[in-house]
Amino acid sequence: MLPLSDHNPSRTTPVVNYVLIAVNVLFFLWELSLGPDIERDLFIVSFVPARFWAAPFYPVNLIRILISMFLHAGWLHLGGNMLYLWIFGDNIEDRLGHFKYLVFYLLCGGLATMTHAVMNPASRIPSIGASGAIAGVLGAYLLLFPKAQVTTVIPIFVFITVREIPAIVVLGLWFVLQLFVGVASIGVQDANAGGVAVFAHIGGFVAGMLLVVLFGGYRRTPRVPVSYDDYWRR
Asked: How is domain 2-218 classified at the CATH fold level?
């Protein structure tokens, strides 16, 4: 299933979400400018679990966690992540507020990366992409807006249909798939494992559900009346 949009308008302009999308795109354009040196340069600046555990408190390794959250392996990787962030991020920013949302996003990404590192400690493959942080956004969205309708592309054998489906189904199935793949991969990790950071998705999703509660996002706030008449009717 591929979500296209949600029917859950936000009350504020999601400026931080826009900035995050823009930064991801700018980082990807920088990657394209590297030319033939791209693999070498990305290995230097990105997060690698085996290298991290060799010196976990080395400051550069901590910086690499942040940098890796804005790197992507291709147009499809970037486009898919930004689509999910565009659809679901605005409502989380609306509920948390701009600054809290930024902190929430970065913490989800960091915790997702560390989950991947714990489950793939010997991996020498760079872990890049915003999907861990975005998984946190999805976890928060599922908790806060389970009944929100999401317009979704659904492939059925050779046919494709578009339907409105509750977020709890779309995001719940996504998480179950990550769990299934993650559990199936336990015990087979080696130095060449970890290209697809499934455990980062799992860790980020759970972190998002927990952090959005800790940040006060689960407390409902009243909508601003659209007119004085609407106010007095309340």
From this structure: Rhomboid-like fold (1.20.1540)
